[in-house]
Write a structure and sequence with these properties.
This protein has about 210 residues and is an alpha/beta fold. The chain folds into two domains: about 120 residues, Response regulator (Rossmann fold, 3-Layer(aba) Sandwich), CATH 3.40.50; about 60 residues, Arc Repressor Mutant, subunit A, CATH 1.10.10.10. It is about 60% helix and about 10% strand. The chain is built from nine helices and five strands. The protein has a five-stranded parallel beta sheet, with helices on both faces. Helix 3 links the parallel strand 3 and strand 4. Helix 6 packs across helix 8 and helix 7 packs across helix 8.
């Protein structure tokens, strides 16, 4: 299992080393990069963690790095740091969706607090994505008829009502229901409905 990591992207070596030392002292996993290009090089999957990046860098700037991660479909939290804070760039950063914008010298407490929040969020989002993918695979195992029965169960229909809807026997619907429970790995109609609704809510949130 991957450890949530802070990815520090800053062309200033002194700043990189200082932030890395700070995170190490607080037991936070950290990797440093001298440019956005180095961070992105060969990286195709979204890492678990957060990005702490300088705003003004040669080549790809901090804000451009943030935008590139969004263009790649990533949702990794990003904190911008800068020695040249301006109201206009701060407003632009927040409007773009950057999580925080801190001026150098970075306030230690603020950075540590924010980064820990980011790491928790990133881990939870990662775990939820894995859970949703597993749920999706389970649902794919259902036949068309089982999906129809499941949908009616989720809508609150009784077994008798579903049998009447399909013009079939109670026993036939019961068999479909049992196969649904076995394929999804859940016991009981209440747990089944809760599982489906939780999955749908999580899918919408993502």
């Amino acid at each position: 299992m991957s450890t949530p990591t802070v990815f520090v992207v800053d062309d200033d070596e002194g700043s990189r080393n200082s932030i890395e030392c700070l995170f190490n002292v607080h037991g936070i996993s950290c990797e440093t990069f001298e440019s956005a290009e180095k961070f992105l090089d060969g990286r195709t999957e979204q890492p678990i963690g957060c990005i702490v990046t300088d705003l003004n860098m040669p080549g790809i700037t901090g804000l451009e790095l943030y935008q590139k991660t969004r263009d790649m479909g990533w949702s990794i939290p990003t904190v911008i740091i800068t020695a040249f804070g301006e109201v206009a760039s701060c407003v632009h950063a927040f409007k773009s969706g950057v999580l925080d914008y801190l001026e150098k010298p970075v306030p230690t407490e603020s950075l540590i607090t924010r980064v820990k929040e980011c790491l928790i969020f990133s881990q939870q989002a990662h775990d939820l994505a894995i859970s949703n993918e597993a749920a999706k695979l389970k649902l794919k195992k259902l036949t068309n008829k089982e999906n129809e029965v499941l949908e009616l169960l989720v809508k609150g229909n009784s077994m008798k009502a579903i049998a009447a809807e399909f013009g079939t026997s109670f026993q036939a619907v019961s068999r479909h229901r049992q196969r649904i429970l076995e394929k999804i790995g859940i016991e009981g109609d209440v747990n089944l409905v809760r599982w489906v609704l939780d999955y749908r809510r999580a899918s919408v949130a993502n």
